[in-house]
Amino acid sequence: MKSIEAMGMNVSGLDNVVISSSKVLVNGRALEHESQGNAMLTEIYRSHVADWPKFFKMDTLSKVGFLATELLLKERDEARMGSEEFASDRAIVLFGTTASLCADRNYQATIQSASDYYPSPALFVYTLPNIVTGEIAIRCHYRGETQFLVVENFDSHQMAFHVQCALQDSVTKSVLVGWVDSTGNDDFECFMTLVDRNEAACADTLAEQMEGIMNNLK
Amino acid sequence: MILKLKQEIIEVLNLEDIKPEDIDNDAPLFGEGLGLDSIDALELIVLMEKNYGIKLQDPAKGKEIFKSINVMADYIQKNRTR
Fold this sequence. Notes:
The complex is a heterodimer.
Chain A: H1 4-7, E1 16-20, E2 24-26, E3 29-30, H2 37-48, H3 60-76, E4 90-96, H4 101-109, H5 121-124, H6 131-140, E5 146-150, H7 156-166, E6 174-184, E7 187-196, H8 203-215
Parallel strand pairs in A: 4-5, 4-6
Antiparallel strand pairs in A: 1-2, 1-7, 2-3, 6-7
Chain B: H1 2-12, H2 38-52, H3 62-65, H4 69-79
């Protein structure tokens, strides 16, 4: 029997992108790729984005979050995607457990040995998890609230709560929300979705939908 | 020396879509040229220390040294300790 994922269906009701070390799903449809891990991210970037060289400088956490956002916005075919106009009505709220530990380790490797002590500025700038929200905001010209919450475990109700909080002000109309976690340069999992005020009205429903998306990572 | 330096810059700055021949020897490295930023400038300072033993005491001097590949290569030739 074919799984829902294999059939390419989006059962969550929200447009979403799911990325793990071995697969990329856009609304349940698997994107074709030959490589795995970080090489897969580069392969998907080259075939679906290709116009943001800064991608190659990013740490794995930022690459995953950036790529998921790009694929999601392309899927929604947003008229304002690629616009140079700044948008203040969209917040970015991301969650993860491992934060920037992967980037921290890569940076630490450059200062580990006294005889080979060359701290890398390019690695150092990624030693904060919320840098991924900045990378997305810069690319999309978002000027709304951005936050990356480091949590103990995936908790869809907690995520829904924070989405609703972000929508409390009168400016924010939608929230880019997702789970972005990277435990190694080739080990990561992520889902990204976009939620407007109506979709966030009922926290339980939103939590259930995000739970459904998260299940695609398993 | 010029080719080696270009390869080192491409590697250390992760300029994946750039080949050595794409870099004009006299074109500015910053600004419009390769589109490098301030973090890249710091990485170039680390590169000079790590690969050529040149310790730049005043990072502001980088502005002059990183004017172009030719200028940078010339500075390295004159000041390298390894």
